[in-house]
Amino acid sequence: QNKEDNFGTDLWTPLFEAITKMSDIAYTGLFPKTNAADPVAEAANEQLRYDIAFRVIADHARCLTFALTDGAVPSNEGGGYVLRRILRRAVRFGRQQLGLREPFVHKLVPVIVESMGNVFPELKKYPEHVIELVKDEEVSFGRTLDRGIQLFEDAAKSGTVSAADAFKLHDTYGFPIDLTRIMAEERGMTVDIAGYEKLMEEARDRARAGGKEIGISRLADLPASVLGALRVAEVLTTDDSPKFESLKPNLKPNGERISKHRVWGYGRVMAIWNGTNLGLSDTTASEGEEIAVIADKTCFYAEMGGQVGDQGLLSLAPSGALFNVQTTKWAGAYVLHIGRVEKGTMKVGDSFTAYVDESRIKIEQNHTTTHIANWALREVLGDDVQQKGSLVDPEKLRFDFSHGKSLSEDELAKVETLVNAGIAGKLPVYAQTAPQEQALKIHGLRAVFGEKYPPMVRVVSVGVPVEKLLADPTNAEWRKYSIEFCGGTHLANSSEAAVFAITAEESVSKGIRRIVALTGDAAKQAVEAAAALDAQIAAARKSVDAELQAQIVLLQKAVTGNLPLRAKRRGQAAVVELQARSKAFEKANKSQASASNVDAVGIAAHLLEKALTLGGGKIVVGEIPGASDDQLHAAIASLRAKSPSLGVLLGSANDGKVSFVAAVSDDLIAKGLKAGDWIREAAKMAGGGGGGRPQMAQAGGKNPSELGAALDRAKGFAQETVK
Prior knowledge:
By secondary structure, this protein is α+β, with helices and mostly antiparallel strands. The strands form six sheets. Strands 3-6-9-8-7-11 form a six-stranded antiparallel beta barrel. A hairpin with a 4-residue loop joins strand 3 (263-273) and strand 4 (278-279). The longest helix has 30 residues, at 127-156. It is globular and about 95 Å long.
């Protein structure tokens, strides 16, 4: 193409045009005289800073789009961390150099898909998933970026970034040290890396000294010699069968809990392990000592199969000592009760009464609901869904499963509905040991692919007695219930879970998705917060334009809370919608009087009154004379707020050019109308082109005289397409 540099080729033109549209700054192709950073030249030439920012943003957006399409995910380690750094660098350049204060990198994904999708068709498979990943990262980083940049500016005044400032940027504001170093190098400055590393090591030392995990790790590790000593001393395998007593109902008919402690039992201390020495007889442990207690019998669940270990209390006799159990783990054939002596002195041979604390209830709420969610995911997504991992603790449930793409809003809603129906159904939970060969014949049984199960397996069924399943294993009716092999503890009845709410859905690796969800009181609070957020969104949409910025700030704060995922997405979409309105309002106030007098929202409302009805939704096609792109977007945002089932395509002629913006709701997309196809068809009539996602697209044209014909074609295309 006879260009002097790679960025001059038409591969980059669509991206540069998109960035120009967002920033109102043009790319001119300036480069520093050398390949190295030149802070002096950049400080002296504003356009050079702009052009560098254009290249950084375009290059990084393209890299991210390809990597995330391939299944990579931004994270804090490995390749995921590289992607996170790339995205944050692009965001910083946009914020600092081009004044792009709202999330913008994700808006470049459709441009890349459009321009390169024919050569790399895989880009067209999951663009919405890539957009969402990038946007979530932008929103998260944007919360701390402004404050971090200001702190960096203050720290940089001395000509070098001190160790203390670099540590504060990392520890408090989430600035990776390499980002601080890059920002410094761009100005020809240095960072005290050695001092920073020293402060980091001191912080790690403090964490080790104050954290219990190090002690737990030491106490949970029984060397082979210690296990051998236990066998020689004829200390029998710990009998932990009483842990399943948790299946006894813990609710009165009115829903009140019978006991704070879900399980209690009895046992005797057989050995004490302090991480160095094993005490088998005449061994004591005094108040304040951290030890692991080995007992003949326990009602505590030891960590296994994704379920965390129990916490609770051992009340010992005759010593009268109290032992606080911080966690419970398996070591060989023995259950280790790991914790601290809270009172008195305990000794080997003491008898105890064991109390599992109420965190067990929350764990069981999450565990039983995980089973129901596993069943619901298969019902919604199909039989290809297989469990790939799980974690249940008192705070949440986490479930990994095989699936090639992110869950749509509709799929998330269906999963939540099915699980909550299972909870509302007050289904009894049954558990019974059975021969593996016989249990595997049960229709609809869920087992972890590749897992090796023993000859006798424990079958957990939510809703049907295991005896009935074994008596009639091929009955197709069993497909309607959650049935799994499981050695964990569960609720007595599904109703004890109360509520289920998905708070996250993400990629773990290529082909593996993960949901995170809440149950019980935590889920109730999240659902209440979602209702409050929806009311807040409704109020914000009714605000006059001059008050939008304050409403946006409140919404941004609200969506950072512990919300169901679908509510959080509604909040994020509302923020973007209101930001478009606010930006259009601000730009209109600064523009010429003729432009500022365009009542785009009012004209759009009039068009809605005359809209066609197709496929159960409204089809709005029309011109808003003299409207800017932002005003067209603001008009569409106002229509979407008024009519949830909507296809809208608006056009405007300005300065010898034509602009089109289109949006289509999911129900009309399902009936064949896609914004990208629709707008492309209209733009052709005006001598232009464009495109975008099925939900939202924009285009331009060169012939304002053909705007009317283009809008007529848009109406015809909609009538031909909507089924």
